[in-house]
């Protein structure tokens, strides 16, 4: 993986940074030279490492405002600064609306929208107290801009997250920049739960114009860019990381009989 820019001396927090996309983001930040602190409710089976360095892990439930506030205070107190927050923690099981009940769907919204809001508010309190400010990156999803049957509450939360980021970018300028990475399908250790075996993953990948699912480290590269000084004039933006999106279904339908 090519290092996009140098983040040496920076301190970054990645929520949910121990697995899947979050681990890819953590590795990319480590490769770029940042000190990285990850947090989640449970640690991974093994630490996240890259470039001979290891990310630190602290157990945190990002839905608990008091715990989150204390966590960010401790990070800045120990490291002397907080430069980057990546709001990656999130996700959802496949569940049709009629099957879940309001409370289960509300928990999905809590994790994917309210928790990033909680973390961002806590991080902002630390970032605004330092001359260099900081950068917040939301991990969004294409589910926030298209119908998402089976993950409707997740899609609604991701749509709200993107709007939240745009408003934060205005309110917190010029010290703190806020942007969103809008992800398409990413190949992780849990891909089989959504797409089946290797043939299924390959078949789903062929629906993407670039012909495959993204790798978590590629998401990490985009995240490092938005967190870096190379993106110093980018705030309130949504960067699509989806391999070209989805081929419109009507094109295949129109040629099916030919």
Automatic annotation (TrEMBL):
Keywords: Oxidoreductase. NCBIfam families: PRK07856.1. InterPro entries: NAD(P)-bd_dom_sf, Sc_DH/Rdtase_CS, SDR_fam. SUPFAM superfamilies: NAD(P)-binding Rossmann-fold domains (SSF51735). The keyword Cell division does not apply. CDD domains: SDR_c (cd05233). Belongs to the short-chain dehydrogenases/reductases (SDR) family. The keyword tRNA-binding does not apply. It comes from Streptomyces violaceochromogenes. This is SDR family oxidoreductase.
């Amino acid at each position: 993986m090519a290092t996009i820019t140098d983040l040496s001396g920076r301190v970054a927090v990645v929520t949910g940074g121990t697995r899947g996309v979050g681990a890819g983001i953590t590795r990319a930040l480590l490769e770029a030279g940042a000190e990285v602190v990850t947090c989640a409710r449970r640690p991974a089976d093994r630490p996240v490492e890259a470039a001979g360095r290891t990310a630190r892990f602290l157990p945190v439930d990002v839905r608990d405002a008091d715990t989150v506030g204390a966590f960010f205070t401790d990070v800045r107190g120990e490291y002397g600064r907080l430069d980057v927050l990546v709001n990656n923690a999130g996700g959802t099981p496949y569940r049709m609306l009629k099957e879940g009940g309001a409370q289960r769907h509300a928990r999905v919204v809590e994790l994917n929208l309210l928790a990033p809001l909680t973390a961002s508010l806590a991080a902002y309190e630390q970032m605004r107290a330092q001359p260099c400010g900081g950068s917040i990156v939301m991990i969004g999803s294409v589910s926030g801009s298209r119908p998402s049957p089976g993950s409707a509450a997740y899609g609604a939360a991701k749509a709200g997250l993107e709007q939240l980021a745009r408003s934060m970018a205005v309110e917190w300028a010029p010290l703190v920049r806020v942007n969103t990475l809008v992800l398409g399908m990413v190949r992780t250790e849990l891909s089989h739960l959504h797409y089946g075996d290797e043939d299924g993953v390959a078949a789903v990948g062929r629906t993407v114009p670039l012909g495959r699912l993204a790798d978590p480290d590629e998401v990490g590269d985009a995240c490092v860019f938005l967190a870096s000084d190379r993106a110093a004039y980018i705030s309130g933006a949504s960067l699509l990381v989806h391999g070209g999106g989805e081929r419109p279904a009507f094109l295949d339908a129109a040629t099916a009989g030919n």
